[in-house]
Amino acid sequence: MMGSLCKCFIFYSCPSFTCYSLAGVSRSVTLVVAYIMTVTGLGWQEALAAVRVVRPCAGPNLGFQRQLQEFETTQADEFRKWLQKQYKDNPFNDEADIRDLLARASGVSGEEME
After folding, report:
1. Which residues, at least 6 apart from 103, have a Cβ–Cβ distance to it below 8 Å?
2. Sign, CA torsion 105/31/74/83
3. CA–CA separation, 88 vs 23, rounded Å?
4. Using alpha carbons only, what angle is made at residue 52 by residues 46 and 55, rounded to the nearest 5 degrees?
5. How do the domains of the chain map onto residue ranges?
6. What's residue 94's pLDDT?
7. Which end of the chain is least crowded, N or C, by CB within 10 Å?
8. CB burial string 53-68: b at 16+ within 10 A, e below
9. What is the CATH number of domain 2-7+21-108?
């Protein structure tokens, strides 16, 4: 997973990126969730919930879910620090945008979710 994750992160300095696979349900969703975890600091379940707002069929298989959980506890902070060091200031406020997305989907304000 980490090799593919690094390829996705190459696009960190761009305002958006594309990650896809044949079905777009498990593998590509896992990469997007890991990316969101890294650039925002959200946990894997929150990141997956955000993906499901825009892609309801998103469903990493159990093996990928375990990898996301492990990534959250062992490597996400390290990758986040590396990206911040590499790219300095990020002009985007991804975490606030995702919290707003989750809030709109649940009918709660983004500030209430923090």
Report:
1. 109, 110, 112, 113
2. negative
3. 35
4. 150
5. 2-7+21-108
6. 84
7. C
8. eeeeebbbeeebbebb
9. 3.90.190.10
